[in-house]
Specification:
The protein is mainly alpha-helical. It has one domain. The chain contains six helices and no strands. The longest helix has 17 residues. The radius of gyration is 14 Å and the shape is globular.
């Protein structure tokens, strides 16, 4: 039996921690909080803005995608990297964590 803890700073994994940190640091979670209750759709929309729009603008090496790539798990095409990252983020955990306050 494997008892290894695969969490990251109290979150499901690195990617979930990273997404929650970006939302908090950029003040986007506060924008969602002003709408009274943070929803799955709201978090997805904010993260979508932060990732895909930034990728389209070419902000890849120094901001969001650069952070994703430096974690060392992803190589290759931008879209594939973002798809892989999205598949690992536990959006529901971010919603639940922020609605506990």
């Amino acid at each position: 039996m494997n008892n290894q803890d695969n969490t990251y700073n109290g979150w499901t994994n690195f990617e979930t921690w990273q997404a929650a940190l970006w939302l908090d640091n950029d003040g986007l979670i506060e924008i969602l909080r002003e709408e009274d209750n943070i929803t799955l759709n709201g978090v997805v929309n904010m993260l979508d803005l932060m990732t895909y729009e930034q990728a389209e603008l070419g902000v890849l090496d120094t901001r969001l995608l650069g952070d994703i790539m430096t974690h060392g798990e992803f190589k290759g095409d931008t879209g594939l990297i973002l798809d892989q990252w999205w598949s690992l983020v536990n959006i529901q955990e971010i919603v639940d964590n922020n609605n506990e306050d």
